[in-house]
Amino acid sequence: MNAPLGVSSMVRGLPIYTEDGDRMTSVIAYVYKNHSLAFVGTKSGKLKKIRVDGTTKNTLEYEIVQVVDTGPILRDMAFSMDHEHLYIMSEKQLTRVPVESCSQYKTCSECLGSGDPHCGWCVLHNTCTRKERCERSSEPRRFASEMKQCVRLTVHPNNISVSQYNVLLVLETYNVPELSAGVNCTFEDLSEMDGLVVGSQIQCISPAAKEVPQIITENGDHHIVQLQLKSKETGMTFASTSFVFYNCSVHNSCLSCVESPYRCHWCKYRHVCTHDPSSCSFQEGRVKLPEDCPQLLQAEKILVPVEVIKPITLKAKNLPQPQSGQRGYECILNIQGNEQRVPALRFNSSSVQCQNTSYSYEGMEINSLPVELTVVWNGNFNIDNPAQNKVHLYKCGAMRDSCGLCLKADPDFECGWCEGQNQCTLKQHCPAQDSQWLELSSTKGKCTNPKITDINPVTGPREGGTKVTIRGENLGLEFRDIASHVKVAGVECKPLVEGYIPAEQIVCEMGEAKPSQHAGFVEICVAECKPEFMARSSQLYYFMTLTLSDLKPKRGPVSGGTQVTITGNNLNAGSNVIVTFGRQPCLFFRRSTKHIVCNTTASDEGFEKVKVSVRVDKAKIHQELQYEYVEDPTILRIEPEWSIFSGNTPIAVWGTHLDLIQNPQIRAKHGGKEHVNNCEVQNSTEMTCQAPALAVDPSHQSELAERPEEFGFILDNVQSLLILNKTNFTYYPNPIFEVFNPSGILELKPGSPIILKGKNLIPPVAGGNAKLNYTVLVGEKPCVVTVSDVQLLCESPNLIGRHKVMARVGGMEFSPGMVYISPDSPLSLPAIVSIAVAGGLLIIFIVAVLIAYKRKSRESDLTLKRLQMQMDNLESRVALECKEAFAELQTDIHELTSDLDGAGIPFLDYRTYTMRVLFPGIEDHPVLRDLEVPGYRQERVEKGLKLFAQLINNKVFLLSFIRTLESQRSFSMRDRGNVASLIMTVLQSKLEYATDVLKQLLADLIDKNLESKNHPKLLLRRTESVAEKMLTNWFTFLLYKFLKECAGEPLFSLFCAIKQQMEKGPIDSITGEARYSLSEDKLIRQQIDYKTLVLSCVNPDNVNSSEIPVKILNCDTITQVKEKILDAIFKNVPCSHRPKAADMDLEWRQASGARMILQDEDITTKIENDWKRLNTLAHYQVPDGSVVALVSKQVTAYNAVNNSTVSRTSASKYENMIRYTGSPDSLRSRTPMITPDLESGVKMWHLVKNHEHGDQKEGDRGSKMVSEIYLTRLLATKGTLQKFVDDLFETIFSTAHRGSALPLAIKYMFDFLDEQADKHNIHDPHVRHTWKSNCLPLRFWVNMIKNPQFVFDIHKNSITDACLSVVAQTFMDSCSTSEHRLGKDSPSNKLLYAKDIPSYKNWVERYYSDIAKMPAISDQDMNAYLAEQSRMHMNEFNTMSALSEIYSYVGKYSEEILGALDQDDQAGKQKLAYKLEQVITLMSIDS
Fold first, then answer.
1. How distant, in Å, are the alpha carbons of 924, 986, 1032 from that of 1446?
2. C-alpha separations of 483 from 278, 479, 521 in Å
3. pTM metric for this prediction
4. pLDDT tens across 1024-1064, in order?
5. Among candidates 649, 630, 629, 627, which has minimal Cα distance to 638?
6. Distance (Å, whole) CA 1112 – CA 1129
């Protein structure tokens, strides 16, 4: 019970929010500034944010966020400690969602109208944000939290003509904070100037002449621009209002000019519209009011017969008198697209006449043609025609082929019938002497020779009442002409006024016929019964007797709607049929000779038998027929009460009287759309129906069940069953099938089942016994189907070959593809056995022959054998080497993968990572430190740098600055990279702006590249411009998340795999060569004998814990051993947190208890012939399983004396001693030179001596194996590492890897390159491919692959570096479109991956095409993403220090930069040169 202790009444909960459709799955709440906020997770993966202020009436659902794509949100949600984020779980992901997303609202009204209590409007920053994130939000009017506090702006005047310049505009502001820092007025992109703040008013000047917008006639007479106020403090627009520039001169008629809402005047004599009336030449020529405009007045209908010469007189007012030098008036008629100009006379200011002319038009299908009429003067000065007067041209003869039709024409046309010519003409066109001309008004205006062409109907009952329609020619011009002279089959037929069409049609009603009358003609007289006015039909009219015989069905529901068919004879006679069932009409539907069909209406007398009566005109047909009204059908239950969206699943229906219904239907209505399907009656109590579909938009098919708004049956006219109230009929999502595979062909053996995968295959009906009826056809044959929720199992029928698979369910069809069933082996088992036996016997026979032959030839070959002994020896060693390589290849892959799973990945933090890429090799860069300035200058310098920051944030300045620097001869490559990196560190917090600048620079670079006639493929190839380095840095910033979440893992795995694999074999501590390598240069080309030892190392952190086993080679130097031990002990510790090998000594603890410090060099080191060999474990004879320990460095007598030598023993020291000679082109010449010890002339060596020192005899070289044989080791190593290389390439070249989406930056930049290619008409796919490869793989990924230490906290030695370089080279080859011709002289690294590169190339092409197909990213989405990235890494670098570094270039090239700014118009407008001079003044030391 919800009752507190000691209280008798219950505590009742009030529901404040209910949800029917998308079920709630989790709820969490907290209080923010007196608002209770609830966060509700739903079944479809949405998060709903709800504000609760009191009871139900004050609940507001103010935002819905889709958190999870599929599946529900789980129950447990939690806030972060600061309540700024919410952690949300689904089946597969944990998501951090911000509690508010105020930044999505772009205007004050949107922000404050959103209902989110976290959000308010930060006025001068023009953003929607939390109050605590808005600078100085506590000061008055800087932060708006209510709608009425939004900034408003009015401007006076709010419109000016485009020909007015520098007009003073006064802006009245409301709710604006104090603007002591100043304000700028901006007219969109037309102009910008300082505003003058006077109290609550701001004064601005309208743009100068060259900045005013051009107004094009098509777009109306005005152009609206946004007049914006921009705060100088924040550089942001904080208020705007519409401002209109209007252009009177686009009006070319007086009325449109003076009726314009702007201050426009019409100059009558110049025929122009202007805002300045003083520019009209005459005082009386200025028009301001519509009634003073020259215009034509409304005229009576202007009729002009064709081919008749006639003037047209028009009434008008205010017609101007042409001045000297001006031409007179003309009329222009546009007849069927042809313009006809006619001279006109101006009688006075109110009348004009088009001169005598005749007009004509084509064709006899139109008897009257309205024609546009325009009056002009002085060539093209139109007189307005507001009444739109038209001239009507007409032809009497058109479509008036008979006398009656001619005289029926409009009397104004003055047409008459010319009997001599038998045509309709004007009087003057009818020759007077030989013919008579009839007109309507004359005394003899009657047409002779009437004619009957058709009568309908031609049969009727004797009782009369039939309405007969008679059609023909010359059937009188007035009703009285024919009112009394119509007979049908000898019976009087009374004409009806309402059916009479003069000259064309008479409708009359029949009287009763005598029994003796059976048939006859129709006869009429027009006006008088003289032979020339009489007509007789060619058709006969018959009198019929009508009879009935039966009706069917004989009963139906009391609600009506039953279609009844009455049978009989002659039932199509007469004109009108009335059927009644008792007192209820049966609605006539159709009839024929034998049938009348009608639909019953509802009976108001209940269940009864009624008489059926039929009347045709005045005849009542006597026949005793009866019809029974019975009880309406009912529906008792339906089963099942569900279907799928597409419907067409079977439903069984039980009820009563169902057999009464002729065409039963089932209906469902959803979203205002209705679907109907048919039913089939089984008997009076049962019928089966096919479920109707549900009107769900296929593109928005939810994963949820839906209920129809209305569900019921259409059973004739029974209204009560149209909507069934008691049913819970539910629709579930349609089943969805997957295609077999991308090729769409599934290969099977006979008898194997076909599996169709999909989802929603079994509807989730409560009770769980739902089954859909699936039909699966393989070719034409059906198969037996077993269904589970996610797959259909189909027992394949006995077929072979290729067949289409088709699945059908609920009216839907889907083909997942083709199935190819391969035929079984045609051989029977006995045949196979006999072939195998025969084959075995044959092999035994061949072996026997060979053995006999071998014995025979052995003696003769013995001598030759001896000669080849040495050769064989060499070959066997090669074979052994290859065997070893292959065995290692098999075992190592397994070892590497299992080893790597355990260790974590030591990612560098964002700042260290970006610094290593942006400023490689510089450890403590100034941008990480505070600005160092002497105290007395600090304030000036900071002010100067702030001003300089504003300039850097001005796109015009920044572009000019970069272009100027790049044009300087002394501005080196290194400077370019440095400036690009410094600019990006400054703009880290403004990535939207940085991206805009980058796009502009890249666009310039592309233009420049194409102008200079370079091959387009060279674009972005080398870092020769600031833009290219900026692009690298831009990707560096935006791909960090992708590296951490996705690409980092395979890159780290590859690094570890290479390191581990190299350390499995000997590595020369001095030359860096190794037994295992991908690089030919770094391969030891001789046999080194070595053994793997496992040493037990004492744990330095905890001496008592168990010893750590470490795998070591007996040929390793002591430093190498120390490094391997450190790697094993500190496996999961980042490199920078480990002790250094040089700071530790290796102590060998022997069984006897003795302890010995082992070193690379000591008294025992061997020296022979000036070569001193570094000590190894083999030198000290350390056995397998020995115990060693790492201890802090001791100063022994030996290394105190020989300190210089000892300090040289770290591996890295030896690597530093290596000096390369020769050109880098000849790879084989990059052999290290060993620097001799200067005092003694002794040279160090470890595993191999350097061959360039001539100490080696030629004979020694011969004892080594042919060194190229060792290249098989490259292959072995490559095979071992193949999986890791593939993994890395696959991750980088796939658009959605392991659930991680493609970074927006990549799609955005690729789309930008495609746009640029389109813009420059570059349609060569190779060029586009190369641009993309140079932009991302070459600029970013190659750098990361070669230098994993940029991303991870690791140490990279020279052999690993050489192998990574080979991988990076392969990566570059994969991105290239050019074909690499390979030969025996090709470099080994190209040969090594020759087979893999084509498939990698396919990956790259697919990757680029997949990205191109993805929907474009809107600038809005990209900006939101960039803003988020900026916010996350806002304070990584010291902006002041970075600005100071950039400023050093201003100091160096100040004259050139100022010069460039002076020449730039935009810069001039914004006074950038002046601002830069201010900065220079503030920054100069002597100031």
1. 17, 9, 19
2. 74, 6, 18
3. 0.45
4. 788 888 899 999 988 898 888 888 888 998 998 898 888 88
5. 649
6. 13
